[in-house]
Known about the structure:
It contains two helices and seven strands. By secondary structure, the chain is α/β, with parallel strands linked by helices. It has one domain: Rossmann fold. The chain has a five-stranded parallel β-sheet with strand order 5-4-1-6-7. A two-stranded antiparallel sheet has the order 2-3.
Amino acid sequence: MTTRAPFRPRRRFSPPPTRSELLWDGVDFDGTICNNSGPPDFQPLEPIWDNVKKIQRLVDDGRKIWIFTARPWADYELIEAYLNHYGIPFHGIVCGKLLVARLFDDRAFNAALEDWSACNPG
Length: 122
C-alpha cells in the first residue's frame, strides 16, 4: 500500500502571463501528412516526407502540433499508431475542426510551400 505525503498548503496559484502568440499549429492528416488508398477503407499510405520534415522544423521552433482530420473518432487509434510508427511528432489528434494560429492543410495554406514557418496567421 502506498501512502501519500501529507497535504501542504502552497502559495496561491498565479496563472502564467498570456502568450503574445498562439503556439499551436494544425496539420491535416489525409493529403498533407499522407495520402490514402481511397474508398472504401481510406488506409493511410506512405508519409509525405517533405511535409513530415516541415512538421519537425515547426516542433524544433517550439510549435505544438495538432493533427486534425475529417475522419471519424473511430479512426483515432489508427492515426495515432500511424504517427507513432513513422515518428511523426504531434501533441494531439482531433477529429473535426480546432482553434489554431495557422492551418496546414491541402485546402488552406498550401502544404507544398517549402517553409511553413513563413506563413503568417495575421
